[in-house]
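Deviation from plan, reported transparently: zinc ion complex.
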Amino acid sequence: MKRNGFGTALVTAGSILLLLSGAVPARADIISVSDLPGSSGITTGILSASEKSETKAGAETTYGTGKKTVCYTADTSGSQKKSLADYTDEERYKLLFGTDKKLFTVDDKPAGFETKSAALGNMTTVKVPCYLIDSRGAKYPSSRNITVHKALAEDVKQIFDEIYALPEKFPINTLVGFRWNSRGEVSGPFLETVTCMSAHAYGAAIDINMIENDYYVGAGNDLRDPKNPYYITENVRDIFEAHGWHWGGDYAICTDTMHFQYTGLDMLSYNNGSPFKKYELTSPQQSSTLIRNMQRRLEKLGYYKNGIDGSFGKGTEKAVKAFQKDHGLKVTGRTGKKFYTLLWNLTNEMYDK
Ligand SMILES: [Zn+2]
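Because the crystal trials were delayed, the predicted structure below was used instead.
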């Protein structure tokens, strides 16, 4: 199935903005963040209803070799109404929050989501089937619990039933739905501070196999290993998309390959803050997918030799300092905008397939 061409993002020092354009910028445009055109305001809307309404009531969709029926909800009269996949962006906000579509921020949360406990009142935990991998590498049937918005629970169960039935027996080692963070859970490469809330805080986003499917920055920078059994497969993406969910791997900047989201991409718009997250040696050490990604690049250039663990330890600090020294940057051991831009530019070519 062809990828939906949405989520092209523009970055400025003060804001990150997701646009509707289907075009993915050239790599150089993505990486040289300071060269990107300025922008203001926040886009709203993503895919039009017509773009998302390929599936019709009763239709069957094929994923790989398995045939699956798309999930529908029945209204009180017993007749079929449209699937959640066919909801417009506006209808999705009504469904989840009972409000008109808008960008919610940490200072302006939807009613009923002001606190973690209030948000949990809108959630339910469902058990979904999945495969796990034993110590000898064999897949075996199991299940995992996931907490999501009540309105999405049946659809989420259906999604994971379909994933479970895939011929590849897709294994799931980490699964996160609802996740609360009072400062907003949105994060990613280059994001220092944000004010908008993540769809995870509303139970409308799911992260799958987050170690093996991490963030990266821009096309050509995907460092994931397609041979890893936990790598998000095309079939998995197709199932989510058939249910109207968006894949974070389609975001042109801050590509988030573990992430699936039911609400529009505008909820991943970032504003009010430097997009460059600063890391340095701290106690306890900081860990993130960005650090993991950074280590891989420093390792590729010969600066880092301590193993890719995503933790900013002494070895990482040493590598950052050596890289800064060699490239005429101030030797601080702390990552910043110039550091990221140089490192990503230098390693971009190496990972260009
Ligand atoms: Zn996520």
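Residues 1-79, 267-275 have pLDDT under 50 and may be disordered. We consider this an acceptable substitute for the interim report.
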